[in-house]
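Exercise 7.
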Amino acid sequence: MKRRIAILGSTGSIGRQTLDVVRQHPDMFQVEVLTANNSSALLVEQAVEFDVNSVVICNEDKYEEVHDALQDRDIKVFAGIDSACELVAGDNVDIVVASMVGFSGLRPTISAIKAGKIIALANKETLVAAGSIVMSLAHKYNAPVLPVDSEHSAIFQCLLAAQGNKVEKIHLTASGGPFRTWDREKIAKAVAADALKHPNWNMGAKITVDSATMMNKGFEVIEAKWLFDMAPSDINVVVQPESVIHSMIEFEDGAVVAQMGCPDMREPIQFALGFPKRMPLNNKKLDFFSLGSISFARPDMEKFPALRLAFDAIEKGGNIPCALNAANEAAVAAFLEGRLDFYGISDVVGNCIAGADFVAEPTLEQVFETHNQVFIKAKELIDGRIV
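Solution. The predicted structure, written as tokens, is:
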């Protein structure tokens, strides 16, 4: 039987690449539900191509536009995040690809978990903001969480080779982003157009800026803690500029297992959708002879203070990672709009997590309260700065 898929955020980078995987394996997958926030035209185009059962446009102002475009089709049209939460829990869905950008992906992902769906998780913020809650619910409702991030997919694949042996350390690789070779003075003058020129990966704007600040790697450390039940002190970040080693695990005897491949998100997406089966993929294959060499370096936390802030947040625990995420969402949005300088991102985040009201074991309601309060505080700090 075909695996029936719902895609949260189908018009984003991960959503579009997920649909490309489906195109290559129409005998394996059937898309049932698509959701988008604002990209109504592309949502309609995708719905028609994949003949889906339902679509959700989360921006309710665009409902009529989507409804009118699909009125002659046998496709149900809904609006609002509540509709997305309801549809991903439906009996016609087996796998939910959680690829909405930011904190907004938390509610529908939890809805899918409570319905016992397989979660192909591409939304970092879900585990950053509420990792303990999400993973506890996943265990309670027997909902497998399969990582789609290239790094966490790599770790997951390496663990399959571990055969139950104890993992001593996780090595998360990082490209270093577009500013890896820049000095701090030059980075300080960087604008959004500079930050969006990632040397290896084709990603959405928000995650690309997070890669430039290395906050993205900090988020991945937090994700790895929850996904693989590892202490943050046992998670190491290694800059690997060629982006061919996607991550590694190290055993007690010093042996290291790595997962390698070309930088193409379709590979980890397909692995999650088809797990445990591997399938052909029309992608570029790794050529060791043209690659020549692979280099490694320590991350520079003086140039990239956001990475240190993420480590600090997970060490403090509780609701502080949620505060980290909320402040970062507001700061990155302001940077992309030209209202905040590059290092202003980490300055705002640092101020927000230092001033956040600490909750050691937050409930889901307290997670949402923390996000809303810190997001407002971050916007106030941004409005008070001069770019």
